[in-house]
Amino acid sequence: MDMETFVKECRSCDPYDTAKISELLAFGAQLGEAIIEARGKRERIPYEKILELYNNICVSLPKAHKLSTERRTRIKSCFTQKFTVKDFETAFRTVQNTPFLRGENGRGWHATFDWIIKPSNLLKVLENTYGAAEAAKSPSFDIDLIMERAKYGTPQI
C-alpha cells in the first residue's frame, strides 16, 4: 500500500471495522517510521564547510565572514542541482588559479564568494570557462611581447 492508498483507505474506513482499522494503524506506523528514517538519512547541507573551504583556498580574494540567508539559499540551490562539496572545492581551487577571476583582468573585477556560489557561475568555473579563455590568449595580443619583437626585429607569429 502506498501513501495515497493509505489516505483513501483511512477516509473511507468503516469506524466499526476493527480489523481494517488495525491494518491501517499498523501500516501508518510503518509509514511514519519510514518517513522518520528517510529524514534522518537525508544529508545535511554543509554550509560551514563550504565557507571554510572558500576562505582556506581562495586566499587572494576577500574573506567571507558570515553565512547569510541569501548565501545559504544559493548553496542549497547548488546542492539541489547535484553539485557536491568536492565540486565547490574544485571550483575554489580553479578560481584561485585563474588570473582573470583573481582580478588580473584590466577592470580590477574579481570573483567573490557570493559570485562563485551562484549555481550558474559555479558551473562556469567548473567548466573552466574563464581559465580556458586565459590559456587561449595568443602571444600576439601581448603588448609587451609585440613591443619586444618590434624592438629586436623578431618576426611576429
Describe this structure in words.
The chain is an all-alpha fold. Helices cover 65% and strands 0% of the residues. It has helices at 3-12, 18-41, 47-57, 69-80, 85-96, 99-102, 113-116, 119-126, 129-135, 143-152. The longest helix is centred in the first third of the chain and has 24 residues, at 18-41. The model is unreliable at 133-141 (pLDDT under 50).
Which key terms come to mind for this protein?
157 residues, mainly alpha, 10 helices, 65% helix, rod-shaped
Order of helices and strands: HHHHHHHHHH
Name the shape in a single word: rod-shaped
From the alpha-carbon coordinates, what is the Rg to the nearest angstrom? Answer: 28 Å
Strand content: under 5%
Structural class: mainly alpha
Number of helices: 10
Helix content: 55-70%
> How far is it from the N-terminal to the C-terminal residue, by CA?
73 Å
- Low-pLDDT runs of 5+ residues are 133-141
Average pLDDT, all residues = 82
Task: Let me know the number of strands.
Answer: 0
In this structure, how is the largest beta sheet organized? none
